[in-house]
Amino acid sequence: MTVASPSRSGAEILLGFARTLRAAGVPVTADRERTYLEAVAALGIWDPAAVYYAGRASLCGAPADLDRHDLAFAAYFAGELGGTKRRPAPPPPQIAAADLTDASKTGGAEREETLRAVASSAEVLRHRDIAALSADDKRLLAELFSSLHPRAPRRRAHRHTASRRGTVDARRTLRDTVRRMGEPGVIHRRRRGHRPRRVILLLDISGSMSPYADSLLRLAHAFCRSGIPVEVFTLGTRLTQITRPLQHRDPDRALVAVGDAVADWSGGTRLADGLATFLERWGRRGLARGAVVVIASDGWERGDPAALGEQMRRLHAVSHAVVWSNPHRGRAAYAPIQGGIVAALPHIDHFVAGHSLAAFAELVEVVAHA
Amino acid sequence: MLSPMDLRTAHPAPTDLAAALGETGYLTDEALTTVTWLALRLGRPLLLEGEPGTGKTALAQALAESTGLPLIRLQCYEGIDATQALYDWDFPRQILHLRAVEAVHGAAHDVAAVEQTLFDERFLLTRPILTALRTPSVLLIDEIDRADDEFEAFLLEVLSTWQVTIPELGTICAATPPAVVLTSNRTRELHDALKRRCLYHWLDHPGIERELAIVASRAPEVDAALAAQVVRAVHRIRADRELLKPPGVAETLDWARALHELGARELDTETAAATLGVAIKYREDAQRVVDALDKVLTR
User: Fold this and answer.
1) What's the pLDDT at B12?
2) d(Cα B285, Cα B294) in Å, to the nearest integer?
């Protein structure tokens, strides 16, 4: 094996590789590094193939990691670099400085007035079309997203829980009887409990939806932070899973992370292809089964509307409910006449607006009761 | 049959393991062999992900067969919990026992002693994981992605310490940790904590050469020329990215066997169309394949 520098020990070189891999975006933890060293030791460090397979087995945890590993392996062991390369630090999160904080510098009475102004402007902002907002208003609106409290739709659970009504819980009753040496006592009952349904968000981030992309991601972030089982995907010219980057506590950080993960901002829309990929790779295998699927899109389909209709039929067939949130729906003169949306409509359970914070709040309610 | 201690050192090098698996009819490539060997050597669980029908479950079966250890299978499903995976008390028998004690001794007996007998080994129903901890074995935890998060957390505990505590009996510790194979169809991202404890491998569909060898070893009764035709056809079908569910190795084997049972000498358009249901399980897919059947069957 080519060694980066003759003075470094084997462990050092291997750890350097682990670090390189981490810099390449694979979540390598210390215990994975240890497993890696053990694995290489078991196979023999002088066999490049062994080091390669040991790295794939112990440092990776998903198919995407494997590709990164192969690239990093080629680069590192070709003697290109040591393990010191760092990913550029993420840009500092934009602090959404609302008027509230600025007001603290001024006098008390003035401050109160500003507060009231902010409160009423917030109410106005809630109902305004996001596409028409100025940059400052958008920043203010971003703060308001924390007022959304998504709740999970619920389904009957497989497991039973103790209850005052329901069927007789023979096992618990018997166990109680055993405790009393066979003396009959209270009859326990049970019934099936509730479990949260999974929610799947498919966000259209194509060019025609770009004024709403930022807000949709903030909505998705609110869902992710709420503790509901959620999976989020972006739909553009390709399909990207962004659940992981959205896990940051801070919405601005989460959005920066999503920005790194998604490659097709403001491109075209191939809704039918995106849905087909989603169904093939995730949906039909179980992710969408019994889930509430939310599609946020204006339904402007480049391709054949019939293909979109077919994919929507499939999606509807595997999921519990399909909710379509369309920003144009909020306009007074809107009628669903575009080819894409006409083809999709028969397979949609709830067709809602999606142009303002108030509309998003309504969407959250619809999802909770889907 | 190997003695229990042998699992870690039974195969001095990965190639020995490949040979042992090959004897059972399971053909591996270098990557899979190395990872499996490492999992055995380091005593780590092996997490296999991949398309359905690429031989994830079969690996565990082959591993069990080649080592002579029993295969213990735990099929995961939504709502599975510890009583189905670990152990449970046999309540009806406990009650029966109480009644029997009462009938024989009447009312005069030592309560504590009777209670003690209630939580005895013979009233314990051992479920797969406990069974695997008590006997050297190959433990297959199938389709872990179907189970809930809580169950994953519970597995984490067992897989890292190899012990289980039953309040009434005490802690049961594995003398020799079982070889553990976890499979997942990736319907859901597994938790990192669980993944970190495992060695990871992604299984792809095999290449033409290897799939031919697999058919030859798993279904030796099938005529070689017919087998080659079937494998080539399946590969062409798989190359169609639009399919909802590309056929796996299991489907190839089924198809080859089905054609053999029908007495077909070669795969032509008619026999293929008639038996397509063995390999293709979706109406839309079947339509696509039938339409392109001429292309699929060209040599």
Assistant:
1) 84
2) 15
| Residue ranges in chain A whose pLDDT is less than 50 | 1-6, 80-107
Q: Nearest-CA neighbor of B101 among B85, B89, B87, B112? A: B112
pLDDT digits (tens, 9 = 90+) for B237-273: 888 777 778 888 888 999 999 999 988 888 888 888 8
Rounded to the nearest 5°, which phi and psi values hold at A214? -60, -45
Q: How confident is the prediction for chain B on average, in pLDDT? A: 86
Q: CATH classification of B6-83+127-203, choosing from 3.40.1620.10, 3.40.50.1100, 3.30.450.40, 3.40.50.300?
A: 3.40.50.300
What residues does each domain of chain B span? 6-83+127-203, 87-123, 208-297
**Residues on A contacting B at a C-beta cutoff of 8 Å:** 27, 29, 31-32, 35, 38-39, 42-43, 49-50, 53-54, 56-58, 60-63, 66, 157-159, 171, 174-175, 177-178, 181-182, 243-244, 276, 279-280, 282, 284-287
Architecture of domain A199-368: 3-Layer(aba) Sandwich (3.40)
Q: Any chain A CB within 8 A of the CB of B88?
A: no
3-state DSSP assignment of residue A226: coil
CB contact under 8 A, B200 and A39: no
DSSP A35-67: HHHHHHHHH-TT-HHHHHHHHHHHH--SHHHHH
* Mean of all residue pLDDT scores within chain A: 81
Q: What is the rounded average pLDDT of the residues B172-180? A: 88
Nearest Cα residue to B242 out of B278, B291, B276, B198: B291
